[in-house]
Design brief:
The complex is a heterodimer of chains A (284) and B (155).
Chain A (H helix, E strand, L loop, with lengths): L6 E4 L3 H11 L3 E4 L5 H6 L7 E4 L9 E4 L2 E5 L4 H6 L1 H6 L1 H6 L6 H4 L4 H7 L5 H9 L2 E6 L2 E6 H4 E3 L2 E2 L6 E8 L5 E9 L6 E12 L2 E10 L6 E3 L10 H14 L10 H23 L1
Chain B lengths: L1 E7 L2 E7 L5 H8 L18 E4 L2 E4 L12 E3 L12 H8 L9 H11 L8 H8 L10 H12 L4
Parallel strand pairs in B: 1-5
Antiparallel strand pairs in B: 1-2, 3-4, 3-5
The chains are: A alpha+beta (284), B alpha+beta (155).
Chain lengths: 284, 155
């Protein structure tokens, strides 16, 4: 349970960090909050030759509200985002998810960007980013590009980020008037990995759903968008039941020590139904 | 080997360390501060929790080299004069520990919680304790100790 020998470099700027990543290639790994990487180093599930620490890169931890977005810098601590007024006021879904990310002591250190880039299928922040249709900005020596959340998450621990790219910022669309959000999670203990989770964003106009996004997590290899036939309708008991059925049909969880595939599928539907109903009530 | 300079419990130390050395092992083995306990080494049990520049963090999820320039407080640093803090006294009064393995980590996390402006609610205390494994007490005396410390005086 100790890391293998590694070379450690502390980057002071984005330019220095991406330079080190370009040199290190596949053997280099970015160290942000370390709440996922260091356990992997300890268990030797990851053995990078070079660790590039970005914790002291200046200007990478800010939270800025602008142009209908809240931009959260890559090394912004989850705890700081949780306490941030722009996040609480403008991105209520992110604010709702953050208390579920690990524990206070891991959020004190864990970063928003790190959780997104790590892309654990059972992590809350990738789910929220997909539900909101957000994006990330990545930088490398080759340039800078924006990647939509829908394209970013590929599979378990796998993103569209290239090995030489550094995630520098996450972009969270601000809530529009008339939108309701809800996040639902079932875990064995608070702070544990989710058994199943669902996030819903509903835009309601004139007493009916205008836009709906329902996303499931922990029961699939990446945040999974569910096609729910809610547009043009009010959310009633029948709509909730249909959303739950659509959610169950959208996943085929493999099951594990703590829960059978049938149970996970059932719970996914329950959480999805609750998320849709609560988002509707929030929007009303 | 890399040189680091860090203030631990108010004392400035300089050490040459391997970059792969964990902060928990640096505190215990290099500095001999064995009050910080090591349980799971992947962030789950909470026994190794210390304060890093004021924030409660898992020392097993930090490389010691990352402590360079920082201030660290361990359980030994809670009471430089050998007295018990109100929180520690409340732990003793309510029998909030038996084997004591989880205690230093809980004390460090709770000391941060008790610095907040308002006294913590029971829900906030149990939420905090979800990040700390205790196999002796069933947690109730620990909840009581933290609540009692919040009623007395600042930690």
């Amino acid at each position: 349970m100790k890391p293998a020998p590694l070379e450690y470099r502390r980057a002071e700027s984005v330019e220095e960090a991406v330079g080190l990543l370009a040199e290190g290639g596949h053997d280099a790994k970015v160290l942000a909050g370390g709440q996922s990487l260091v356990p992997m180093l300890n268990m030797r599930l990851a053995r990078p030759a070079l660790v590039v620490d970005v914790n002291r890169v200046a200007g990478l931890d800010g939270i800025v509200a602008e142009n209908g977005h809240v931009r959260v810098g890559a090394t912004c601590r989850q705890r700081a985002a949780e306490r941030s007024a722009p996040v609480r006021e403008r991105v209520p879904l992110l604010a709702a998810c953050l208390p579920f990310v690990g524990h206070a002591a891991t959020r004190n250190r864990g970063t928003v960007g790190g959780s997104i880039a790590h892309a654990d299928a059972a992590a809350e922040l990738p789910l929220a980013l997909v539900a909101l249709g957000g994006s990330v900005v990545a930088e490398s020596v080759r340039g800078r590009r924006e990647i939509a959340a829908d394209e970013l998450f590929v599979s378990h621990f796998t993103t569209a980020l290239a090995p030489d790219e550094l995630l520098v910022e996450t972009l969270w669309p601000a809530a529009r008037p008339g939108t309701g959000f809800a996040f639902e999670e079932l875990a064995l203990r608070h702070g544990d990995y989710a058994l199943a989770m669902a996030a819903c964003a509903l835009l309601v106009e004139g007493g009916a759903v205008a836009e709906a996004r329902l996303v499931l997590g922990a029961v699939a290899a990446r945040p999974t968008l569910v096609d729910v036939p809610l547009a043009g309708r009010a959310v009633d008991a029948e709509a909730v039941r249909e959303a739950a059925e659509a959610a169950r049909a959208a996943v085929s969880p493999s099951g594990h020590l703590h829960a059978s595939p049938e149970y996970l599928r059932h719970v996914t539907g329950v959480l999805a139904g609750r998320a849709v109903l609560r988002a509707w009530e929030e929007a009303a | 080997m890399t040189a680091i300079e860090v203030v631990v419990n108010g004392r400035r130390v300089r050490e040459e360390i391997e970059p792969r050395l964990l902060a928990s092992d640096f505190l215990r083995h290099t500095l001999g501060l064995t009050g910080t306990h090591v349980g799971c080494e992947h962030g789950v049990c909470g026994a190794c929790t210390v304060r890093l520049d004021g924030a409660a963090v898992r020392s097993c999820l930090l490389l010691a080299v990352q402590l360079d320039g920082a201030e660290v407080q361990t359980v030994e640093g809670l009471t430089p004069d050998g007295e018990l803090t109100p929180l520690q006294a409340a732990f003793r009064e309510t029998h909030a520990l038996q084997c004591g393995f989880c205690t230093p980590g809980i004390l460090m996390a709770a000391s941060e919680l008790l610095e907040a402006d308002a006294p913590p609610t029971r829900a906030e205390i149990t939420d905090l304790l979800s990040g700390h494994l205790c196999r002796c007490t069933g947690y109730e005396p620990i909840v009581e100790a933290i609540a009692r410390a919040a009623e007395t005086e600042p930690v």
